[in-house]
Amino acid sequence: MPEAAIVHIVDDDASLGEALASLFRSVGLEPRLYGSAQAFLDAELPDAPGCLVLDVRLPGLSGLDFQAQLAQFGIGLPVVLMTGHGDIPMSVRGMKAGAVDFLPKPFREQDMLDAVTTGIERDRQRRAADGGRRALEERFATLSPRERQVMALVTAGKLNKQVAGELSLSEITVKIHRGAAMRKMGARSLADLVRMAEALHVGA
Amino acid sequence: MPEAAIVHIVDDDASLGEALASLFRSVGLEPRLYGSAQAFLDAELPDAPGCLVLDVRLPGLSGLDFQAQLAQFGIGLPVVLMTGHGDIPMSVRGMKAGAVDFLPKPFREQDMLDAVTTGIERDRQRRAADGGRRALEERFATLSPRERQVMALVTAGKLNKQVAGELSLSEITVKIHRGAAMRKMGARSLADLVRMAEALHVGA
DNA sequence: CCAGCGTTCATATCTTCGTATGAGCGGCGC
DNA sequence: GCGCCGCTCATACGAAGATATGAACGCTGG
What is the mean predicted confidence (pLDDT) over B159-183? Predict the structure, then answer.
């Protein structure tokens, strides 16, 4: 059974927000209502897959600007945009910014559900990929500076002897750092380490 | 100096097509005109970075359907959509399908140029990435079946001895295949071979 | 039929890797 | 100051890898 998903609804129209909330509840999704972009930013982001439903017309800044701002903050939550008075350039801008969908009001409930479902699925995959990456980064963080250098050169295909030359070390020392890097990264083979370095962009 | 880029224009309105063609020529891009989707498909695709400008309303099939069809044929050429009578769902569909932009007529010339420039840049990068991949696949195609098996297991991190066990071979034979694979693939280190295997999805 | 290729294996040699054991040095914090 | 940690290096041994030489078998295509 998949983890419970949360739908964040940012809309200044409370009655529409409630309608959406009840729609999402009816299919087993947990809705959260926010009256403004700021209210969403102030709230804690739960550690669960989710999706953001955003009205383009918001008090303060536009939903499109808000969308761009989220990306700047590193919030990768998928966004579904909706609007009552939209035009094509607006929708294109939203989609270019990575929105899952752009729904003109009035929309069919099923379209909204489809969009949110797609967004949640996208978030699930992003979170899974991110999770693996973060675990890698945590392990990489435990490496000493020397160990990182050695790891970078070794995964670039250099021999211990060559690494020793480039770093002005003895080959023995390189072996020690290499072994430590393998152990700390949890790599059971050089191939593993190479793939980890690839995912971490080490050496780039 | 970057390679000359080609703009493919598919539009049944010849006068508009000509206007676009002259616009693109004015900025040093080579335009090619097609009166229908079929005419484009029948033509030879030049080996140069390019971009496809497509009217959504076409005789026969719609520009959106054509766009989907191109993807099926494995034609990754970036698409810029334009239309005289479009709506938001249409633009969203086009953008979801990966269009670079969706321009309602009348559009500013600069917007079209920006879109096409973006498309060409995207194509340049795609072609560069694809080129590297194809070169890899060509080399991989020269490997004998055994060499591929050995390469898969070796890049999975197994020792020669383990590979020999799994394939019921002697360790010496494994070494020979391994060496042949390295030579044929042009890998100068195991790390190289691992990255190649990764790019080729070998072992997946 | 035979040349070529892929596959298999042995022997031999050299290099490289992995790791353990032991040890010295410098910085940082309690 | 003393312990911890990172960094350094040496010696030593066994495992693993790379390569060359030589050789055998079967299949396929000219």
Answer: 94
Please report, as a single letter, which amino acid is at residue A52. Answer: L
Bridge partners for B8 per DSSP = B32, B52
Selecting from B92, B101, B191 the residue whose C-beta is nearest the C-beta of A194 gives B191
Domains and CATH numbers, chain B: 6-132 (3.40.50.2300), 142-200 (1.10.10.10)
A167 touches strand D (CB under 7 A): yes
pLDDT in tens, B34-93: 988 889 989 878 889 999 999 998 766 777 788 888 888 888 899 999 999 899 999 999
B10-21 confidence digits (pLDDT tens): 998 889 999 999
What's the pTM value of the predicted model, to 2 decimals?
0.84
- Asked if the Cβ–Cβ distance from A102 to B86 is below 8 Å, we say no
Residues of chain A contacting B, Cβ within 8 Å = 86-89, 91-92, 95-96, 101-102, 104, 154-158, 188-192, 194-195, 198
Chain B positions contacting chain A at CB under 8 Å are: 86-89, 91-92, 95-96, 101-102, 104, 154-158, 188-192, 194-195, 198
Phi, psi for residue B72 in degrees, rounded to 5: -65, -35
Q: How confident is the model at residue B153 (pLDDT cuts 50, 70, 90)?
A: very high
Question: Assign residue A8 a region: left if phi > 0, alpha if psi is -120 to 50, beta otherwise?
Answer: beta
Both tokens of B121, joined, read: 């840049």
Query: Which residue pairs from A99-104 have beta carbons closer than 8 angstroms and sit at least 24 positions apart in sequence?
Result: A99/A67, A100/A51, A101/B92, A101/B96, A102/B88, A102/B92, A104/B88, A104/B89
Give B86's contacts (C-beta < 8 A, 6+ positions apart): A88, B56, B102, B104
**Distance measured from the CA of protein residue B149 to the C1' of nucleotide C3, in angstroms:** 27
